Amino acid sequence: MVYQIEHVARAFYDTVHDGKLWDLEFEIIKEEFRAFASEAIDLLHQHQERSLMEAFCSVAIPKGQVEISSAA
Fold first, then answer.
1. CA distance 51 to 70
2. In angstroms, rounded to a whole number, what is the distance separating the alpha carbons of residues 12 and 72?
């Protein structure tokens, strides 16, 4: 997860500070972007879990009763 956070933080940094070098930036600035990245990754995981649950419920909960013998 640390590896993912670092990559997302660098991507955010590059978007905001076009042309500046991440490796030369103060650590306090890097930590701020890592916090943004961590939050973004957490939100993405929450969205994915919700989407999977919605997909599961749409398939697992039948809209009406279906007889197995008539489904074949």
1. 31
2. 53
> Model-level pTM?
0.69
Question: Does 68 map to a domain?
Answer: no
User: Per-residue confidence of the chain (72 residues) as pLDDT tens digits?
Assistant: 788 999 999 999 999 998 899 999 999 999 999 999 999 999 988 888 887 777 766 666 655 555 555 544
- CA 42 vs CA 11, 46, 48, 59: distances in Å: 16, 6, 10, 26
Q: What's the domain range around 29?
A: 2-62
- Is the CB of residue 34 less than 8 Å from the CB of residue 10? no
- Is residue 44 assigned to a domain? yes
Tokens, residue 56: 């599961």
- Flag whether 53 is in a domain: yes
